[in-house]
Design a protein that fits this description.
The protein is mostly helical. Helix content is 68%, strand content 0%. It is built from 10 helices and no strands.
Length: 238
């Protein structure tokens, strides 16, 4: 008969079980999360745990929600830093931003939006934000491979929706010009994140890969944006 540690006595057992499941997922991914396993971690008998999670899939779903929350927090923090960096750069510029239009520039994205015409500010901002989110996404997968696998458990669609919902205001500038563009970029970034989580991309500079992907997609979109005024002029003179 197994011996259970008496680490749990009172309080919210469901929350304690979910905390234990998250810790198991952190070290071993979804495969490590079982009702008996979390019961053992908390120090209760399996029947006590089964009263809160009748089957393993219920526990996995609750644990996935927690992993998704942690990923969302990482992305939110990255976007917050992006916004703060852009604001600080504008304030530090000569004139403090008075009488001019600021350009949000952050980190490695700066080279992508230098000398961008006024009409392309929205596109450039979207490109920079995509770089920021992509970096946070891959970083989370590399740092917490078990939690990343947990967040993707069952289907990665919830992860995709979590990301696209948070950057929707920035993605409009790109997706309106190329249907499927955002999904294509997310697919590439997700693939890189999976490789990072598996440790198979350790010999490759992830920053260079992200920059290459974004330079390709942003450069293509910016080039298309620059060509539209010329096309419009030709149409008016026909």
């Amino acid at each position: 008969m197994p011996i259970y540690r008496s680490t749990y006595h009172y309080g919210n057992l469901r929350a304690a079980l979910t905390d234990a499941a998250l810790d198991l997922a952190r070290h071993g991914g979804p495969a490590a999360v079982t009702v008996r396993g979390v019961a053992r971690s908390v120090g209760v008998t399996p029947p006590a745990a089964y009263r809160h999670f009748a089957e393993a899939e219920e526990l996995l779903t609750a644990t996935k929600d927690r992993a998704l929350t942690l990923l969302a927090e990482r992305v939110d923090a990255a976007l917050g830093s992006f916004a703060a960096g852009a604001s600080a750069k504008a304030d530090a510029s000569p004139g403090g931003g008075a009488g001019r239009r600021e350009r949000p520039i952050a980190g490695a994205s700066a080279s992508l939006i230098e000398s961008v015409p006024v009409r392309e500010y929205a596109i450039a901002t979207a490109a920079a934000c995509l770089r920021t989110v992509a970096e946070a996404y891959v970083s989370f997968a590399k740092t917490y491979p078990g939690l990343f696998a947990m967040a993707c458990h069952g289907s990665p669609d919830t992860v995709r929706l979590l990301i696209t919902d948070r950057v929707a205001p920035f993605l409009d500038a790109l997706s309106d010009r190329r249907p499927g563009l955002v999904f294509a970029l997310w697919s590439a970034v997700h693939a890189l994140a999976v490789l990072a989580a598996e440790g198979t991309s350790r010999d490759v500079s992830q920053d260079e890969v992200l920059d290459t992907m974004l330079a390709w997609i942003a450069g293509d979109v910016l080039a298309a944006a620059r060509s539209r005024p010329a096309e419009a002029n030709r149409d008016r003179h026909r």
